[in-house]
Amino acid sequence: MAQEKALTNGAAAAAALASGIGSLALGLFTTLAQAIVPVKDALNLYNPVGPLSGKTTAAVAVWVVSWAILHGLWKDRQVEFGRVFLATLILIALGLLGTFPPFFEAFGG
Amino acid sequence: MSLTVREFWAVIHGMGLGAIFLLAFAGGLAGLWSLRPEWVTGAGIQERLRRLRDGTWIMAIVAWLTVITGTYIVYPWYRAKPLARATDLSLFPRSYLLANPNLAAWHTFGMEWKEHVAWLSPMLATAVAFVVVRYGPKLGDEEKIRRALIVLFTLAFAAAAVAGLFGAFINKVAPTR
Fold it and tell me: Which residues does chain A have within 8 Å of residue B154's beta carbon, measured at their own beta carbons?
């Protein structure tokens, strides 16, 4: 009988942290688009939607790439899950802040 | 009794997908909460896991469909610009709101927050659904991971709830028609 491979917590930590990185990216792109006109123009991938198309596409791309990298690095490893999850929550909070209009509108526009 | 194409998509985006999202969240959250070896037998874990997989994946897929239809189908109608001489702005919700100082905050705060924060939901929900499938019945023994998933799942719901609430109010004040 084949021995069952032990399941580590790395894959779960990678998925969680990548979701935090994606959230931060969304907040960052939202704020940068407000603060820097050339960034706003560059993120306008589809005219009817405007810069929102680029902000969300770029954030999703960052999320997918970071998840792929973290999963590759951690999938067979046991990591300190509590610390990784705390970092995830901080990143999500920063992402939320970046998408909050009174915050990003303070940077111009 | 009829709906315009715009009203139809607004209903699909807001009410159709929104209702499924709500049901899937309730099922997924109950599944995550109760997936504890001390509460259920091995057979019970398997039965709950099936519902948990369904609930989390349906919520993730519906979250993606909601943000994609909202951003690429409904939102262009919302933000369309009227001709310079137009006096009737009722078909241009964004311009209609901004033209009235008493209503402008529905766009400058409500819509601006809604259109961005909603995109957090599918990323968080997908992470939860992936972990549920990856760990399967072993999730019951992984207390830290299970608790973390409950938090992420609830945050995914909260982000969608903010977007959904503002969407409902804005569509009441300045309907997409």
Answer: none
